[in-house]
Here is the input.
Amino acid sequence: MEIIKISNVTRTYKIGNVETQALRGVDLSIESGEFTALVGPSGSGKTTLLQLIGCLDQPTSGSILINGQDVSRFNRNQRADIRKATIGFIFQFFALIPTLSAYENIEMPLLLNGIGAAERRERVQKMIQAVDLADRARNRPDQLSGGQQQRVAIARALVTRPTMILADEPTANLDTVNGKQVMDIMSRLNQETGVTFIFATHDPRVVSYARRVVELRDGLILENHAGAAAK
Amino acid sequence: MLLLYKIALRNLARNRRRSFFSALALGMGLALILLIAAVIRGETEGGLKSSIELQSGHIQLHAPSYDPDKSSLAWEDLLENPQAIAERVATLGPVIKAATPRLYASGIVTSSDHSLGVSILGVDPGSPANAPYQNGLVSGSFITADDREGIVIGEALAKKVDLRAGDKLNLLVNTSDGDVDQQNFVVRGIYTTHTPSLDEAVVLLPLAKTQAIAKTGERASSIFILLSGNEQLALVKPALQALPYQMRDYLEMNELFVILEQYADSFMIFIYMIVLGVTATVIINTLVMAVFERTREIGILSAIGMKGGRIMALFFAESSVLAVGGIVIGLALGAVAVWYATVYGFYIGDFGATGFAMGERIYAHMSAQDAISLTVAAFIVTLLAALYPAMVAARMEPVVALRGGK
Here is the structure.
């Protein structure tokens, strides 16, 4: 089932009098349950595309349909609602709230979604075990390693049972061992839960996990082919 | 809501010192305005109370032609049979604390080589209206009704003309026929009302003696009436207005105090605005710094679906925690300052205006209404101070905030 349909999307940034076209007319369709890598060098537009799919930003032109809804013209609150209900994020810099414990960071999206206390507790416990951090639940981010922080971010992204997880360079700040661990978890959860994963990377080891690879260059999709994991 | 406060508390705890000083700034601001309010309230209420007790009473009745500015002793300007009028007033019930005839005259006190102009107050020595003078005796005793030679003078006058209780003085008095008379008196007592301008200018004689020396017969300048409280004025005023006398109430007689109180009230609003404005600026600065330090966190919260309204609520939660902390500090500091000013007061010395019954010390008086309204105002101002930083945070585009605002 197609959950994302991107049609002729452009995104132009204006800094002072200088206009930069980050995306120049992208068409892309993503099916439910995909494990897709957006690859390309710096400045190719993969992060911009991820931000547009994640409703963190709006395209200059074109349309983005998520579950059949055109989100490209949504207002701020509508975009916040769809992010809250449909999308989970994993960022390169872990992006945890430093004043909250691992448990509370994972719990936060559930609170925003108005989930009751008993169900919150059950879901957070389940996710924290899924990322193998049950013994670090009360630790704050600064008491966790980079790998552990990214695992908390994965749990937080998945706890609301979103339609898709968007990960921007999820292993860029991790060493090889932790990077592999994070990708293993993401891959396993994709298979177990069926949630769609789209991740931006330029790390070939990460790309090797993808079952589909979308290569971008200069704001355009250069190639769109099956990944190594699909073969 | 609990989570917002949990995050707010932890965010404030990140920079404990900064948060403490922000709360302290609010606390000091609140303590300052509480003290100012209490002092101003004490000054105006205390001044009015002194003036009523010492000079004006709550109500005075005069002959219709009496001009209070001239203190005329002409018979037609005085009340005939004043004791009967006072007794009639007293029948209005327990709201009348005292109703007593008084005769006002002017004269000159002379002692050895000193002489000074004074106001002579002829009083019924047995009336409770004389309590401030009787209770304020620093030496000697009070005059009695049949005392033909006794006089009570103020401490400031005694010092100026170098007199002590038991000493003799000469009093030159203007009489009702436009002439002057003089007599030697013995200083029976020396009083202080802690109002230097009054203590220097007012001497007390028994009413009968004053009538005799001023040649007014059994007449008096006024019936001096004290009520059980200021608010009783409206109750007795209609009954007294029905009498065939000129009536003046304490509001008319203390117009200066009333104007001063109104002026102080409006002036104080500006002072409150300045103090709370400075405090609000400190809070704004703290929260704006917090917004810029936590831009990326705001982006994260926004990315996971927190709406602008809730992000604003987060900053309001922080400012409300700061406000509560500041108010606790402010009430503690304010309570100490107000307590000191209430018990010990501030010495202002001789206010310098003759006839203006302002004491030599200002004592604070904190009303519950002032304390509550100023505390609520401080809380609201602190919350309002969060508006700008909260709006800055809520309006951040998540994609920009995630980049740290760049």
Remarks:
- The mean pLDDT of chain B is 89.
- Chain B touches chain A through 24 residues (CB under 8 Å).
- The first strand of chain B starts at residue 59 and ends at 62.
